[in-house]
Amino acid sequence: MLVPLARRTLLHDWQRFLPAALAIAFSGLLVLVQVALLVGLFSTISLYITASTGDLWVGFPGTQTIDTGRPIRAGAEVFLHRHPAVARVERLQWTGGDWRAPKGDRGGVSVILTGIDTRPGSGVLARAVTPAQRQRLMEPGSILVDAADLGKLGVTVGDSGEIGGRRVRVVGVTEGMRAIGGVNVIASLETAATLGSAADGDDVAYFVVSLHPGHDAETVQRELQHLATGRPFEIWTAPDFAERTVTYWMFESGMGVSVAFGSAVALLVGIVITSQTLSAAIAGSIREYATLRALGVSVGDLRRIVLAQALWLAFGGLLLAAALGAGLLWLAHAQRVPVRVDGGLVLATVAVVLTVALASSLFALRQLRHADPVLLLR
């Protein structure tokens, strides 16, 4: 009887409870959008790893994130080939540069220049660069940029520009490879060597190792790392390196803490607004609650009615947050804004909505102290 009564009360006095439902919905929506943007941004950093098919990554010891690695000596390639499980070793060059638009009507744009192996079957960025694009990169001075960055660079496919004072031509675009604080530019190893700022051409940012089928990446990583003791490089499996990169940006860069603080504020504001709205709704219906007390309904049952109302409000808030969130995420994808939503994020949003609703109802329960049948005699 209590749950239907709570539902009928909400429907009858929906105008009183609407602000609470909106506060709950927007609290969940804010958390959903903030975290989706954060995870989307961080996934673009690790995309160089996740979009490659290599099993192992080799870089400077102690590297915390792919974009802060220091060069290692090219001689490490010979060492890696000695292991019988290694099928292929590819170089990946990583350096910065300065872009100048062809018309000269824009200032310099910082770019992150990545040199990849363009041979057929190469695993570096195999999921982001098509074989046809890889073949076009074989032409000296050819580059790829993300489609979302064409406007920032002031070019279209086929146009030319300058990186480090050298002429380059955009021969294609990638999708989903926007950078944080710059523009990702992909070129062949040969083109990157002419555009990069490294003085020693024997240095390599990373080696990406592909294993023969049937070999376990973690086992080979441990064996190679043991054999490499004392050598100036470190070896990681691809999933470990991707996780290390995301973890660094999440916790060490300060961005994750900022989002956590913003989510906590959204949660607190939602609880305050919702609790005040529920308290006002209960106060406005205090005579009805007093009537229920006079009919023999216990205070405990009245509390359960309020809790049931909070759960119904949470359900309505979830539906509204889902509708608004779907619209915002669609708009973000349409504008090529990096966002990412998975099952864990959806569950986190549900948890936030339920927390706001239940915490608010607990604060609002204090109003039931005034539901005294004596009120009916006044």
Automatic annotation (TrEMBL):
Residues 261-373 form the ABC3 transporter permease C-terminal domain. Keywords: Cell membrane, Membrane, Transmembrane, Transmembrane helix, Transport. It is a multi-pass membrane protein. Its main location: membrane. This is FtsX-like permease family protein. Residues 20-226 form the MacB-like periplasmic core domain. It is found in: Cell membrane. The chain crosses the membrane at residues 20-42, 259-286, 306-332, 344-365. It comes from the Bacteria. One of its GO terms (cellular component) is plasma membrane. Pfam families: FtsX, MacB_PCD.
